[in-house]
Amino acid sequence: MEAALLGVFTIIIGVGGCISYFYFSNLFTDKVLFPARNISEADVGGHRTRAALWTAAIPFLILVAVIIIQVVLAGVFALVSPGVDAVAIGIPTKVLIYAAVIAVVIGALIFFITGSKPVSAGQNINRANALRPWLFLAPALTALGLYLAYPVLETLRLSLTERIPGGGSDFVGLANYAQMMSEAKFWEALTNNMYWLIVVPALSTAFGLLAAQLTDRISWGNIAKSLIFMPMAISFVGAAVIWKLVYDTRPIDQDQIGVLNAMYLSLGGDEPQTWLTIPFWNNFFLMAVLIWIQTGFAMVILSAALRGIPEETIEAAIIDGASPFQIFFKIKIPQIMGTIVVVWTTITIVVLKIFDIVFAMTNGQWETQVLANYMYDKLFRANDWGVGSAAAMIIMLLVTPILIWNVQNARKEMR
Amino acid sequence: MDNIAGTKSSLTWAVHISVAVLVFLWLFPTLGLFVSSFRTADQIATSGWWKAMFPAEQNLTLRTAPPATQVQQGNLYVIEGNLFEDESSEATISVFGISSRDIDAFVPGDTAEMRGGERVTVQANGDYRLESDVEMEGGRGERVFVTAETPPEFTFQNYRNVLFDPSNREGMAKAFFNTLTVTIPATIIPILVAAFAAYALAWMDFPGRALLIAAVVGLLVVPLQLALIPLLRLHLEWGIGKGYVGVWLAHTGFGLPLAIYLLRNYMVGLPRDIIENAKVDGATDFQIFTKIILPLSFPALASFAIFQFLWTWNDLLVALVFLIDATGETTVMTKQIVELLGTRGGNWEILATSAFVSIAVPLVVFFAMQRYLVRGLLAGSVK
Amino acid sequence: MNRVLYASAAAVALTAGMASAEQVTVFGPWLGPDQINVEAVLAAFAESSGHDVRYVGSDSFEQQIAVDLEAGSPPNVAAFPQPGLAAEMANRGFLTPLSNGTADWLRENYAAGDSWVDLGTYADPGGNMNMYGFPYKTDVKSLVWFVPENFEDAGYEIPGTMEELKALTDQIVADGETPWCIGLGSGGATGWPATDWVEDLLLRTQDPGVYDQWVTNEIAFDDPRIVAAIEEFGAFARNDDYVAGGAGVVASTDFRDSPKGMFSSPPQCYMHRQASFIPAFFPEGTIVGEDADFFYFPAYSDKDLGSPVLGAGTTWVITNDSQGAHDLIEFLKTPQAHEIWMARKGFLTPFKGANPDAFSDPTLRKMNDILLGATTFRFDGSDLMPGGVGAGTFWTGMVDYTGGKPAAEVASEIQSSWEALK
Fold first, then answer.
1. Of C330, C356, C352, C328, which is closest to residue C343 (Cα–Cα)?
2. Is the pTM of this model over 0.90?
3. Which residues of chain B make contact with A18, given a CB cutoff of 8 A?
4. Hey, what CATH topology would domain C143-309+384-421 get?
5. Neighbours of A284 (CB within 10 A)
6. How many domains does chain B have?
7. Of chain C residues 236-255, which have a CB less than 8 A from chain B?
């Protein structure tokens, strides 16, 4: 009960908080900081003080809001579960000090920015427009910085150091990388990752495109789509279980419980194969699992893009006598190229991080190691943070070509 | 669109057939798991699931009733009964044996003599008569090996074990609500935050935009396992410790790059003139965003919502690290299912069943959202 | 977002809301039925001490305890299945030494007490040796499982020596049957059952001193004596005639599925070497002691190494110092703590003060007798080695070996991975 109630409150507070942040920050910029009117010589001092003071007040207003929310929550919970005796209401001193520091800093910043010269309405609008992207971006940048960029920097640091017993660490330069490069398992992982990077995004996107195109034209298309999408809804571990059942091997004198072996034997195979232990090919049996999952993703996104293609371009092609295949390859594909790039990129990145499937099905044995599993092995099995972090840096390096490609794409779009 | 004379009907058939093949291929592995979830562990381990619908010839090891049930008939000590525990079983025995070395030595109706001198007669329907000249001893009945044709058999016991077993029913219900508490905010908050950021990156002009886009793509690839320790440390320092707030923040942070990336690429493709017209009409960026961009991006928002929901629903790692503290007050579905599997894990039937229990909600979400995917698109494509 | 943080944090604190008795949190690897067992023991502790005791289990214990310790949110007490990992954590300064006298208590009250004290003694960051780990709950690994009625049908006798075991193996092959079921599959941990084989065979071919030096790498992994033990295992596992399904399926057969071959009709194999926990994976309704039984994995009669026993178990350490945590360790020294779990399932103990009548079934008691009667008891070596070897290259190496790689090559690869860790 409390959990459900708490959930409801969070949704209200969290979502409401987000919306009011975006709303009020824009309002504040347009009305208080840079109002769309001329600020005369006489007005400028007063405006400057007002803006700085209001800005400095924001952290405290937030704290007040927090206290109000706490009181409301405490009241509600006291009603729902009377047994609860103590409710923490209040703000720790540490937070108060932080708030004060932030208030002084942003107040001074605004005081500095607004300046002591009179401004025209146009100038003010320009200033507001220069600030606005950052208002829109601020929460996202904060979260990205804290949750992703900070760990990356930490990883970079760890990959250049070695931990010494009892805490602390020594700078060792590139020793961790050198050690990693000398391990055969690392090269095996790198090679396998390359196969994965070529095969999985290509096939997932191709199948997804096929499914999206075909299902759009038939009456039971939505049902078909849901069924193809279903693997997305299964966790990686669940998927590993499903496919272990497919690849299962029993001795020849018993009933096979794996579909693949049953088919192989009925098609004239002489003895059951242990699919996951056949070097090189077993990689592809693992890839099948990810393709099976990711096709649903590609299909959903590509199907939305296909439906967004303006009808008239297709109609024009039909009138010109184009065959359905020509329409598909010459008219549709070019128009959704941008989306295909997005899907390809996203799946490539899933592949770079692929861990669960390999971990659950072979744990990188029989020459199926991949980088993410190698990294996990080093981090949590060998407890070797240095090499584990170095492996992570390699994974992140591999994304560079995709990064450049996407930036170039984005540059083109901007024009 | 397809009104090209002559090619239509054959092409339509080709489409129907290829979709059917594709769906079949994609469904087949899941179907195996689904059928398996209605079978017992022993059934799963001994015969293929595709044979579950047909009568199967099985080798069974059965036992007669224990000596305690013997009755004296004249000079003989006799035990009578049916080898199949389930009296209504329709299995038919084709051959039987009394030693594990020779399991097809006799046909129904034969009398077999055991090592101890007892004689057993087995009928095709499983009825047997075990007789002995001396009183039988021991705690258990004699083993009889039979080869029998058994009708298909399905059980709901796995689902009962997972969902309604008294020892974990309460835990399951609690876990269900906890999981919802985790997933719903962890889905909505990143979408909101990402939508604003995506708009800024797609339609607002400011220095450093390309760099930021690159950064977002770059951050997509950060492996989750790396972030766990530094972030948990950070949470502990802030005083939020392990709990819902932490897990929401973590999911938000981890889900944001993809959300921003997908949404930005969708928004960039929206017709430029709509936005420029609105600007000419004096609309602010905030108004353009809420009144034009958001409604038009509904399909993209809905599809990302589906994905984020699926990830948070199926997540165990983030929940284990950021939510579940040492008191064990909070638990989630995935954790509950892992617990069911026992210390050393790996029971097919529980795995199969729980996979279907946990897939149910995401599928409902997908079906519900699918409508919006279409509706949003139709609204958006009006020129 | 900030404004959400604090309010909800307060609300969470509030739902958890209790303050009075001291809370003792325990983290362990047990889930499912074993979780109920350990909770029964902790409930008794809660009752006698008045503390509020919470248990959480995880199947990824090793990873999670590492994350929690590094980040600073550990439970009060953690039960490590791998002393090697506990030693690493002690070395980083995350563990609190147990109260003085615990070592003496173990020496006096545990069978083969000294080896248990060694098991829980690790170096702190300063290099000083302290007693950190309290051994509680043991598994015996040197067991061979079989179906007595199948042995009767075929007229086989339980072998008393390794020579007899090998003769029996050949006898079964001569009769046209398959003697062994071996499966190494275990998802991410694939390969570990083979490490138990090798350890058991090393104890049966070499002095226990060799074993101890091997575990600490004073004797290299590619030493001929170790390679010989690996090949000894290969004599069983790499012989197509000896293993159900042939040597090719050994590595990929799940260890949980492999014992089922003994119970099929006709039997696919006659014997299965596995630890005391394996009955959990026998077919439903199997009664241990009647449908299935075990015998001690015998020693060579001509080697004069006594009757060595390989085991495993958990060591309980204090990961977050509190009075309650120390109280819990004290409680584990009482017969009650052992007898509660003895009365349930899957618990063995070297504690001489526990009443053996407490065992719920005679099978467990028989296993415990093997444990108490051991002339040499050694802890599972792979759990003592550094994680990168004992839970990494040793596992994968054994998979490679069963796949056909030469033992010497596998051993030298494992050795070089060990050297890389230093």
1. C356
2. no
3. 189, 192-193
4. D-Maltodextrin-Binding Protein; domain 2 (3.40.190)
5. 16
6. 3
7. 254
